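Supplementary Methods. Inverse-folding protocol.

Structures were first reduced to a discrete structure-token string of length 425. This string, shown here, constituted the complete conditioning input.
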């Protein structure tokens, strides 16, 4: 059974937490004690019923203020698929939380209040979803009960969004009219909107393809741990543990250890002590090689026919997550898969206006929640793919060297030819 990871986003009070609560409630994914706890809370929704948003607003501050602050993760499954939900905040000051939740998502649900139409945060979250390479968007036009389930209201919002979406790099957009409060078109098709012939939200989530979104062409296996049991029985055993982030590996494959360039052949691929026919993304396995080559944490096994060039300088889209502004020359710690490297932000090339999807030139610094394009130089050679080609190997985070807090999340857009560079950090 495969897994669909999706995020809910949109403007404030569009009903994101209520929609997830309704999805969990109507699919009978709520424990009796959970339901009893929210019933005893005394907090009711507009109809005088139990407020289902309490199922996701887990922080005390969220419950007190009636808003979502942090990303809340929920899990449920049906007979067809398993689901991991990230409920993202709608407020602009929590954009960084939305980016964090969206980074591993296959699908983004953007909620639109039927009374208000497409808002600034609708555009912002749609653009961020597009920049992060999320392949599937679902535009849930919510609170249709408050506009009398009017088809004309729905059609107008669809028209407005499609006009805006022409600027997005969105491959798949589905529009669904819903009422999270009443449950219309969430799990079951709504009888109040017989003019809508598409699937309910759950039906769409169950059938949207996810296997085709995984890069199975470019084999990338970053080594996380070298296994060397110091026992007489396994004195010659050497295994390399890690996660297949893209591609397929099987016994007999010719591989190259990068960045050293050593070559060998896969002797076995194991999971839980049992040998596998093949391993593919996103499986975590142990790989054994025929030869005793020098491999350590951070090295990457790639196929011989698909070698990856190392680079120490690249351009990337970056979401800045710190209150301290980012300026050219900032020195940070860059984490990419199993590799840590000191890095310097050499240049801020432009900032992205996420409302108009336009580039703002001549920027000397970026603020919290800004998205910008930067040029970064690292002390250690890295094995990078462009994010649009391989999300798993094209993403990284920036960490403050003193506090070790995450201050940025980036997506590689292009690498620089090392032969043209004459400077180092």
């Amino acid at each position: 059974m495969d897994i669909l990871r999706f995020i809910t986003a949109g403007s404030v009070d569009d009903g994101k937490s209520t929609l997830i609560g309704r999805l969990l409630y109507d699919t009978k994914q709520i424990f009796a004690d959970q339901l009893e706890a929210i019933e005893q809370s005394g907090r009711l929704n507009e109809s005088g019923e139990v407020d289902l948003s309490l199922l996701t607003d887990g922080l005390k501050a969220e419950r007190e203020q009636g808003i979502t602050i942090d990303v809340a993760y929920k899990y449920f499954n049906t007979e067809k698929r398993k689901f991991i939900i990230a409920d993202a905040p709608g407020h602009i000051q929590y954009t960084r939380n939305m980016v964090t939740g969206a980074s591993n998502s296959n699908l983004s649900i953007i909620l639109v209040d039927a009374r208000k139409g497409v808002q600034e945060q609708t555009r912002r979250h749609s653009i961020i979803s597009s920049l992060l390479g999320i392949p599937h968007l679902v535009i849930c036009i919510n609170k249709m009960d408050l506009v009398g389930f009017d088809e004309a209201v729905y059609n107008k919002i669809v028209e407005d969004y499609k006009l805006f979406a022409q600027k997005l790099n969105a491959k798949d957009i589905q529009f669904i009219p819903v009422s999270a409060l009443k449950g219309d078109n969430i799990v079951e098709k709504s009888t109040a909107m017989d003019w809508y012939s598409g699937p309910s939200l759950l039906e769409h989530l169950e059938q949207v393809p996810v296997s085709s979104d995984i890069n199975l062409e470019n084999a990338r296996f970053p080594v996380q741990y070298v296994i060397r049991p110091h026992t007489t029985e396994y004195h010659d055993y050497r295994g390399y543990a890690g996660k297949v982030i893209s591609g397929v590996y099987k016994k007999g494959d010719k591989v190259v250890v990068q960045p050293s360039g050593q070559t060998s052949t896969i002797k076995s691929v194991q999971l839980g002590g049992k040998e596998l026919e093949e391993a593919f993304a996103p499986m975590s396995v142990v790989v054994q090689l025929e030869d005793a080559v020098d491999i350590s944490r951070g090295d990457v096994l790639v196929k011989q026919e698909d070698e990856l060039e190392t680079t120490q300088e690249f351009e990337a889209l970056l979401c800045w997550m710190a209150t301290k502004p980012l300026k050219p020359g900032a020195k940070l710690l860059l984490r990419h898969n199993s590799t840590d490297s000191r890095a310097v932000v050499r240049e801020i090339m432009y900032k992205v206006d996420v409302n108009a999807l336009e580039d703002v030139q001549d920027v000397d610094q970026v603020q919290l929640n800004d998205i910008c394009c930067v040029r970064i130089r690292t002390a250690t050679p890295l094995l990078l793919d462009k994010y649009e080609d391989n999300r798993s190997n094209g993403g990284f985070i920036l960490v403050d060297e003193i506090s070790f807090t995450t201050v940025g999340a980036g997506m590689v857009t292009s690498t620089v030819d090392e032969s043209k560079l004459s400077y180092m950090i």
